[in-house]
Amino acid sequence: MSVADIKKTATERMQKSTDSLKTSLAKIRTGRAHTGLLDHIQVDYYGSMVPIGNVANVNLADARTITVQPWEKKMVQVVEKAIRESDLGLNPATQGDLIRVPMPALTEERRKDLTKVVRSEGEDAKVAIRNVRRDANEQLKKLVKDKLASEDDERRAQDEVQKLTDKFIAEVDRQVAEKEKEIMTV
Q1: Does position 31 have pLDDT exceeding 70, yes or no?
Q2: Helices and strands (H, E) in the chain, number of each type
Q3: Which of 106, 112, 133, 179 shows the smallest number of beta carbons within 10 Å?
Q4: Alpha carbons 117 and 78: distance in angstroms, whole number
Q5: Same domain, 16 and 42
Q6: Ranges for the Ribosome recycling factor domain (predicted)?
Q7: Is the whole model's pTM more than 0.90, yes or no?
Q8: Count of domains in the chain?
Q9: Same domain, residue pair 161 and 112
């Protein structure tokens, strides 16, 4: 493995950490409705678990209501149950073959709790990024030990890995600040 390979791998792994954070933050709901909120919900479709988007149309009725319209009449109850039992704390209501999912307004206390969750997710992402940096630095030390790279190359590469780390941690901070702002906006 070369110095360039180590940097490339570190960049890819750090990018995966920030992408994972983005996905986690999307699941944390604000007072507003958005269809992405239901993306991770799995529905039992004839014995196999599939994402809700594979068995129904998911749309916005208004700023606080998501509508879910299953393509098959017998899937209405199954989809409603999946939404109700999800970890989102939503209470769907069925009207014929249309499921309405109202977003409850968030209390001030709940908003503060959610910001703590957001910060925790951000901290987890930062820890993952720092772990990638540590792994990259260990691999660079191993290259020097195996006489595949000079100490100067190692120092330069470690500086570049540190710059990458700083860049991705700044991205995590930006995502966390953005989500906190979104949550605290009434």
Answers
A1: no
A2: 4, 6
A3: 112
A4: 30
A5: no
A6: 21-184
A7: no
A8: 2
A9: yes
